[in-house]
Amino acid sequence: MELIVERALELTEREGAQALTMRRLGEELGVDPTAVYRHFRDKDDLVLACMDRIIEHVYAAVEPGLDVTDWRGVLRAVADESWNACEAHPAIYSLAFYRTTGGPGERKMVELLLSTLSATGLTKQQTVLYYRVFVDSMLAMCGMKAAGQSLDPHLQEKDTSAWTRIYAVLPQEEYPAARAHTGHLAAVTEREIFASVANSVISLIEAALRA
After folding, report:
1. Is 7 exposed, middle or buried (0-12, 13-18, 19+ CB in 10 A)?
2. H helices of the chain, where?
3. Which of 4, 10, 186, 187 could lock 163 by a disulfide, CB 3.0 to 4.6 Å apart?
4. 97 near 86, Cβ under 8 Å?
5. Sign (positive/negative) of CA torsion 76, 81, 85, 88?
6. How far apart are CA 17 and CA 121, in angstroms?
7. 23: pLDDT confidence band, cut at 50, 70 and 90?
8. pTM of this structure
9. Could you tell me which CATH number the domain at 55-210 has?
10. What is the pLDDT of residue 1?
11. Where are the domains of the chain?
12. What is the pLDDT of residues 140-178, one digit of tens each?
C-alpha cells in the first residue's frame, strides 16, 4: 500500500492530477489495475491516502524539534512545513486540501495541535475554535497556492503579471488607489501573505489568552 501511495504522488507531481487513474498507476507499478483496487476502493480513497501521506510528512518534519510548551513555535513550524508540502505536492494538495482523510498522518496532526492549544489554558470551546481557525486558514492558503501552481505555466504567468499588465494601466482618474499601490501589489509574495495570516491567528489566540 505504501508503494502505491508513493508512486501515485510521484506520478501526479510529474504529470499532474489528471494523470492519476487506476489504469495508469497500474502501469507505473507494472501490475494489473485490479491489484490497486485490492488496496483502495476507488480513486477517491487513493487521493485521500496520498493527502494523508503528505500530512504525515509534515508531522515528521516538525516532530523532531517539537517543544510543546512553545505553542507559537509549534503553530509556526506546522504552518511552514505545510507550505513546503503544498509546494512539493501541488497536484494532490489542490485535490484534497479541503478533505478530511481520517488517516494516521491527520490523526497525529490533530492530536498535536489540540494538545498544544489546550495546554495554553484555553477552554475546550476555545481550543476547538482556534484549532479550526488555524488549520482552515493554513489549508486554505496552501490550497490556493497549490491550485495556482498546478495551472499551466502560461496561465500562471498570466495571473502573476495581472498587477502590472492590467492594474498598472487603469485610468488614473477612476482607479487612483489601484494605480498608487500597483508596484507594492506586484512585489508582495505569497509566502509573506501566508506568514502574515499565520501570525494573525497567533495574535488572535494571544488576545483570547489575555482575556
Report:
1. middle
2. 2-15, 22-29, 33-37, 43-62, 71-88, 90-96, 104-118, 124-149, 153-160, 162-165, 176-187, 190-210
3. 186
4. yes
5. positive
6. 42
7. confident
8. 0.90
9. 1.10.357.10
10. 78
11. 55-210
12. 999 999 999 988 889 999 998 999 999 999 999 999 999
